[in-house]
């Protein structure tokens, strides 16, 4: 399954599960273990868990089972490892605290030039 198909299925599943603020980050140039980080917000720990379960099930249904799913008993964050994509479903408070989008954003060429001049 190519990365675009993975991305499309994840986003569709997140949308169908009513996840909010879905962000797809291309991290190909930033890390060696995955190509995409997909981050979404759930409204409660129950919603976070059910949304993560829905993503995992969508891939099981097409015989592409996730490599792993991580969550606690009352999760504020569920991680679904699909190999070439890692999905993070988080409560609003967890997402605000960890700010994964900032962590995985590559600096733009202009930012690098400005940083070198400083």
Description:
This is Ribosomal silencing factor RsfS. It is found in: Cytoplasm. Belongs to the Iojap/RsfS family. It comes from Hydrogenovibrio marinus. GO terms for molecular function: ribosomal large subunit binding. There is one protein chain. With 118 residues, the protein is an alpha+beta fold. It has a single domain (3-117), classed as Beta Polymerase, domain 2 (2-Layer Sandwich). The protein has 5 helices and 5 strands. A 5-stranded mixed sheet has the order 1-2-5-4-3. Helix 1 crosses helix 2 (45-61). The mean pLDDT is 89.
Which labels suit this protein?
118 residues; alpha+beta; Beta Polymerase, domain 2; five-stranded mixed β-sheet; 5 strands; 25% strand; Iojap/RsfS/C7orf30
Summarize the helices and strands and which ones pair or pack.
Blueprint: H1 3-16, E1 20-26, E2 36-42, H2 45-61, E3 68-70, E4 77-81, E5 85-91, H3 92-98, H4 100-104, H5 109-117
Parallel strand pairs: 2-5
Antiparallel strand pairs: 1-2, 3-4, 4-5
Helix pairs in contact: 1-2
Question: How would you briefly describe this protein structure?
Answer:
The protein is α+β, with helices and mostly antiparallel strands and 118 residues long.
Largest sheet: 5 strands, mixed
Encode the helix/strand succession as letters. Answer: HEEHEEEHHH
Strand order of the largest sheet: 1-2-5-4-3
Task: Flag low-confidence runs.
Answer: none
Proportion of residues in helical segments: 40-55%
Structure summary, number of beta strands = 5
InterPro entries: Iojap/RsfS/C7orf30, NT_sf
Subunit structure: Interacts with ribosomal protein uL14 (rplN).
Keywords: Cytoplasm, Repressor, Translation regulation
GO molecular function: ribosomal large subunit binding
């Amino acid at each position: 399954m190519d990365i675009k198909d993975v991305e499309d299925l994840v986003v569709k599943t997140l949308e169908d599960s009513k996840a909010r603020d879905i962000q797809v980050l291309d991290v190909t140039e930033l890390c060696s273990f995955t190509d995409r980080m997909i981050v979404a917000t759930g409204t409660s720990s129950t919603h976070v868990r059910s949304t993560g379960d829905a993503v995992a099930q969508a891939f099981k249904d097409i015989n592409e089972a996730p490599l792993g799913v991580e969550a606690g008993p009352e999760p504020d964050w569920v991680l679904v490892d699909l190999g070439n994509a890692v999905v993070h479903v988080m409560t609003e408070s967890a997402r605000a605290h960890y700010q994964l989008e900032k962590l995985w954003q590559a600096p733009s060429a202009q930012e690098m030039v400005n940083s070198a001049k400083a």
